[in-house]
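WARN no homologs supplied; continuing
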Amino acid sequence: RANMPGAAEKLICDGFLVLEHFFTPEECDSMREQIQGIVAEMEVPPHCRTEFSTKEGEQLQAQGSSDYFLTSGDKIRFFFEKGVLDERGNFLIPKERSVSKIGHALHAHDPVFKQITHSPKVQELGRKLGLESPVVVQSMYIFKVWQFGFPLTPHQDATFLHTEPLGRVMGFWIALEDATQENGCLWFIPGSHTNGITRRMVRAASGASTCVEFVGSEPTYDDSQFIPVPISKGGLILIHGEVVHKSELNSSQFSRHVFTFHIMEAKDTSWSKDNWLQPTPELPFPPLYT
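OK structure emitted
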C-alpha cells in the first residue's frame, strides 16, 4: 500500500499498487446507481445470453463460440453467471443477480463511467507514473455476486491483452464497496510480473469451431505464494499486465462491485492483431488524457 510519490517504484517492484480512498464514496455510489439503471433496462435476446468464465475450456465453449463476446470491445454487453439461465435462456433468479460483468466499452458509451475513466485524478496519476500516450482499451463492471459467483482463476492480463513489447498494459481496479477475503478480494503473487507470459488467448483461424483459442501452456501456481489484498470502498489497485492474480469465491452474503479498465502506453507499442479485442473504426482506443 502506497501513496505518491514512490508509487511507480512499488508498482515496478511488486507488480501491483494499492491506493486507498482514491475515489470518494459519492463517486462509487454514482457508478453503482448508474449500473442499476443499465441492468434495469437490460433486454438481452436469448441467443445472446452468454455465460462468462475464466476457465480455459469454458471460455472456449461459452465465449469462444460466440460473436457476442468477440464483438463486444466497442459496445456495452452483458455476461452472466453460470447456473442462472435455464435451457431456454430464461432467468432462474432476479436478473440483477444474474449478471457476472458488463463490458467492454462503458468508458466510451456511458457518461458516468467515461467521466471516472478520464477524471483529472486518473490523468494526474498516469502522468506521475510516467505514461506519455496512454489509451483506454477496455472497461468492465464486475459484480462478484454471492452464491452464484465463481472464483477468478490465476491469470495474467497480458494473456488476453498482448502488446509488443510486453509491459505496456495496466489495469485500474476500483472497489465500489469494501473488498474483503470473505467477499472475494484480489490475491497477487508479488513480483510475478517479471517472469513473462507462457500462454495467450488469440483469435482463431477462420473456419475454426471457436472464435478464440489458447496458445502455449497454463502454468501451475503455488497457492502459498499468493497474498490477499483487501481494499476499502473507493480504493484503487493498479495491476501490471503480467502480474499473476486471482480472486476466490464470494462466500459472504454481500456483493463486491468493481469498475475496472485497462490502459496501454501507446508510444512505441504495437497492439497484437491476434488479440480478441481490437479497436474499430467506430471506436479507436481513446486517449486517456483529454
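DSSP finds seven helices and 16 strands in the chain.
OK
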